[in-house]
Amino acid sequence: MRKRVTLVKYGISSGFRGEGEMDEDLLQKTVEIVRRAKRVVAFTGAGISVESGIPDFRGPSGLWEKFDPMEYATIEAFQANPKKVWGMLKEMAQLLDRSRPNAAHRALAHLEEMGLLSSVITQNIDDLHREAGSRRVIEFHGTSRNLVCMICGRIYDRRAVTLDTLPPRCVCSGVLKPNFIFFGEPIPWGAHLEAKEEAGRCEVMLVIGTSAVVSPACDLPVLAKKQGAVIVEINLEETQLTRYISNWILTGPASEILSRIVGAVSEAIHCRSQAV
User: Fold this and answer.
1) For a designed S-S bond to 72, which of 34, 67, 141, 224 qualifies (C-beta 3.0 to 4.6 A apart)?
2) Are 59 and 91 members of one domain?
3) Residues 4 and 44 placed together within one structural domain of the fold
């Protein structure tokens, strides 16, 4: 049975709010702006990967229910007791190894392949956008794909490093750390700069699977909006972006909504090429 998808539309300037079942006109409007825009950017969060079997860390079945982030997710905690923190990281690695890209990841990769998506800015560390085929992925918080030595900076492929003995170590004996940021670490400078540039230049931003509460990532939709972009939110429920930033929200599973949007865009392009 097809899951119900609800679209909630907000008239930002007038304050009007209407709610109803599937609004095919609004869905078609989304298809049209994606198809016609010169620059579309996707901004994704944990919600896009839930259908891949990765619970939102902050959710009821997430890692923070089992591991106190103040004890396991700060850079101070890692430096003080890397063996303890690596116990949590090993469990996370096993979870990530079992996950695979879902239809939402693949839809964005297809949109990029069609030349209609400039980039994916992701807060996720799971590498699923790249596995799905997306080429330009800005990993705002880093990636679990690699480990980095805390002493010499040498980079290792995570899957090539055994976790039988914790913490894993570099050939120089330095402790290896996942190449993503812990609480208390700055956003990678290059990713931050590139993400801000993409947000500032896009005509459409698809905000997918994120409540946009983590700073400074939450500033990106605001920046895009200030520069005149249309913000289309795709989430299971309304967020703080919905009333004040998003032009409209499509509520439902990201895999179903994005598959419908990208399928309709692809069909429209095919029909146009056939008519020429």
Assistant:
1) 67
2) yes
3) yes
CA end-to-end span of the chain, whole Å? 38
Q: Residue 141 catalytic? A: yes
The CATH number of residue 254's host domain is 3.40.50.1220
- As beta bridge partners, residue 25 has none
Strand 6-11 to 16-20 pairing: antiparallel
Assess whether 43 and 119 both reside in one domain: yes
DSSP 164-217: SSSS-B-TTSPBEEEEEPPBTSPPPHHHHHHHHHHHHH-SEEEEES----STTT
Would you tell me how many other CB atoms lie within 10 Å of the CB of residue 35? 18
- DSSP lists the bridge partners of residue 207 as 43, 233
Computed from CA positions of residues 73, 74, 75, 81, in that sequence, does the dihedral angle turn out positive or negative? Answer: negative
Active-site pick, 105, 141, 192, 270: 141
Tell me the three state secondary structure of residue 42: strand
- Domain span at residue 82 reads 55-98+143-180
User: Are residues 40 and 161 both part of a single domain?
Assistant: no
Separation in Å, CA 100 to CA 40, 136, 157: 25, 19, 18
Q: pLDDT 10s per residue in the chain (276 long)?
A: 334 444 444 333 222 234 445 567 788 899 999 999 999 999 999 999 999 999 877 766 667 778 888 999 999 999 999 999 999 999 999 999 999 999 999 999 999 999 999 999 999 999 999 999 999 999 999 999 999 999 999 999 999 999 999 999 999 999 999 999 999 999 999 999 999 999 999 999 999 999 888 889 999 999 999 999 999 999 999 998 998 999 999 989 999 999 999 999 998 887 765 554
The reported pTM is 0.89
